[in-house]
Write a structure and sequence with these properties.
mainly alpha; 2 strands; single chain; two-stranded antiparallel sheet; 65% helix
């Protein structure tokens, strides 16, 4: 899986909040702009924030469409590996049981990554699209840098090695080592 795809997946659960916060910052800057000595610089800053918010909205819409193509099991695997929203895992996916070994779990994750890669490309969400849409923004560049330097650990909390705890024999094979 490519780094830009991982960034979109790691950031997806945060996109709604980022969009809302960007809107609040835009509104605040606009309201406070009355006392600014350099009107043009203030307007450019606000336009930059609006562009960032619009790019996030575009990415969110594309990601929603992409994720709608996944099966329930694939959505669970994605939630477990990338999104890590505990309330979703314990709420919406509480009844999901993967009867598989740890090895099978990793095979399923690999198949899911291949499918996601194909979905990204099919929807026109390639690396060039990513760089055109989001690449100019410091927040996204910093996220790419963190992913490149620290890997997935930059975005996820450590967990027990192996398959999900609800996964049949995989739960017996988990150790205290971090993945």
């Amino acid at each position: 899986m490519k780094e830009y795809q991982k960034i979109l997946l790691y950031l997806y659960p945060r996109l709604k909040r980022l969009i809302r916060c960007a809107g609040e910052v835009i509104e605040g800057r606009a309201l406070a702009s009355g006392g600014e000595p350099d009107t043009q610089a203030c307007a450019e800053h606000i336009l930059g924030l609006v562009a960032f918010r619009n790019a996030l909205l575009c990415a969110y819409g594309e990601m929603d469409g992409l994720l709608a193509c996944l099966t329930r099991e694939e959505a669970y695997l994605l939630e477990y590996k990338y999104f890590r929203r505990k309330r979703m895992l314990e709420g919406e996916f509480a009844e999901v049981r993967l009867d598989c070994s740890e090895r099978t779990y990793f095979r399923r994750q690999a198949r899911l990554e291949s499918k996601l890669n194909a979905l990204f490309v099919r929807r026109g969400m390639d690396e060039a699209w990513f760089m055109r849409t989001l690449g100019a923004f410091p927040y996204i560049r910093a996220a790419l840098f963190r992913l490149h330097k620290k890997g997935s650990a930059a975005f996820t909390k450590k967990r027990a090695r192996g398959a999900p705890s609800r996964c049949g024999r995989g739960a017996q094979n988990t150790s205290s080592a971090s993945s």
